[in-house]
Model the fold of this input.
Amino acid sequence: MSLTGCNRMPDYDARLIEADSLVYDQPQQAKAILDSINREELSEADEAYYNLLLTQAVYINYDNITSDNDSIITQALDYFSKHKGDKDKLTRSYIYKGAVTEELALPDSVAMVYYKKAESSAGESDPFNRGYAQMRMGKLYIKHQAFDGRDIEKLEQAVENFTAAGNNHYQILSLRELGANTRFRDPNKADYTLNKAINLTESEKDTANYIHCVSNLAYLYFMQGAKVGKDSAAVLYNKAYGQLQRILKLKRMDYFTTNDFATCACVYAMKGKPDSALKFIDKAKERISDSSYYHSHNYLVPMAQIAKASGNMLDYYKLSHESDSIDFAMMRNPDIFNIMYAEINYDQEYKAEQDKARRNRNLILSTLAGLVILSLLLLALLFYRRAHRYDRLVIELKDQFQNQMHNLTDLQDNISEMKINDERLKGFISSHTSMMREMIEACYHEPNNRIAENMKRIVKFQESNRDNWVKLYDYIDLEHNNIMTRTRQDYPELNDKDLLLLALTCMGYSYIQTAIVMGYSNATSVSVLKQRLAKKMGLDCSLNEYIDRFGKQEN
Done:
């Protein structure tokens, strides 16, 4: 009764409840209701609710986000974190704290943690907020070019949850993002996803998203046409052109984004209509005064196609190269690793908390079970002495024993689940280290390529990027029985270069790959360095044998 009283829902102001019912579909009207409320008259609970709704309305209405909004949503989050009775408002507070963090250009790794907290807070019982948090995480990965499938995984989870919540609007938004970001990796899946989104927009009469989805589908056909022979390309370009006619006949260019204008320009250029393509670029220029537009894919890619259609191949190659340089620069963005580590660390900490809570519950249950068994034994003994009902006592004890065996089975299942998650993490690490080796190997085989030289400078171990390499040691420990931690403890005289050589050897780097990372011009130097390191550690075997022995040792 005491706990129920502490978590009882407060009686919120009716005006706030009305604003909440409008905040997603009519954010301007919701904000108008909020502006009519005198905040000084509100209770602490109503003020927190007011701050949450105001942040939502400002964000959904695309109003300017300032540091004041950050203070407002922080107050709401602090209140609902202390009063956990209202999980919905706590979850939304986490979501919009993350959204404000993104808008203020604060570290996206911080925003990722807030979205993860929202996902955990929502749980399975709140599919809408859970899906919204996953959609935000998916967009965060897309923003930083995470091509390892994390963006797709999050968006697919969001679609599943929005479907369960029966919310077609956000299901469309998630499908649109999912279709656009699977075009490079799985064109067939992108085609299916975008058509599914288009069908939903038609049933919802959502003209704006209908235009965006059809435009994405047209760009998919344009991309496929650029990769095949002339005859097949012509068929695909005609399909792309046909899709664009579906939205152009609506005569609603006020809904077009720069993405949509870029698609129209690319397709019309490939159809041999460069003048018409330029008109779409001019339309996009009218919308954007920011000079950064001229250094974006939405400008460079269509302008390259227009130059090609006009027979100006010099400009075509120049614009294409500038577009490729943007892609490469985005691949070098270290923020992707920061948000990946933020999610991994959160998952590990959350799992540790859940395991601790599970152990505490099991301990309490075991204690209670012991007390119950003892009580039953005493009662059974009393009945036995009074009525000699020994058989009944045996049956009761047998039931208790079976219950204990069930508990033991549950514990074994939990241990198995932990092992599976550990193997998944190891697989993730292996895939990324393999990708890094391939990128380094590519640099070696292209010695005079400017991009390769830049990549060499990026991966080369320096004091400025020391922390990035040190982060890998924890994950190498998972694969090799804590080899990095135990080696540092056993051999404190080893320096950073020694530890890096050991780490690269654990990850399977070749002599050439190791030489590039450590800054040596001659790959044969690595063999000498490995011999010296083994001697420095006083090993009676080679460095590779030392690593193999570690893998076979028991923890």
Notes: Residues 461 and 518 are 6 Å apart (CA to CA). The chain has 26 helices and no strands.
